[in-house]
Amino acid sequence: MASPADAHSKSSEALLALEAASKLVAMIWASVLQQRCAL
């Protein structure tokens, strides 16, 4: 059985993953925009 602490660490892990993914998307988006501006 999952304890509340496990559920909490799972949700915070998901939040960290979401944050990392959004940062990655932002970096990719910024580089794409820079390339478009350079063209």
Could you write a compact summary of the structure shown?
The chain has 39 residues and is mainly α. The protein has one helix at residues 4-38.
What does this structure look like?
This protein is mainly alpha-helical and 39 residues long. Helices cover 90% and strands 0% of the residues. The chain has 1 helix and no strands. 0% of the residues are buried. The mean pLDDT is 88.
Give the class from helix and strand content and strand pairing: mainly alpha
Q: What is the overall shape?
A: rod-shaped
Q: What order do the helices and strands follow?
A: H
Classify the beta-strand content into a percent band.
under 5%
Number of helices: 1
Helical content class = over 70%
Q: What Rg is obtained from the alpha carbons, in whole angstroms?
A: 17 Å
Beginning-to-end CA distance, first to last residue: 56 Å
SSE blueprint and pairings:
Elements: H1 4-38
List keywords for this structure.
mainly alpha; 0% strand; 39 residues
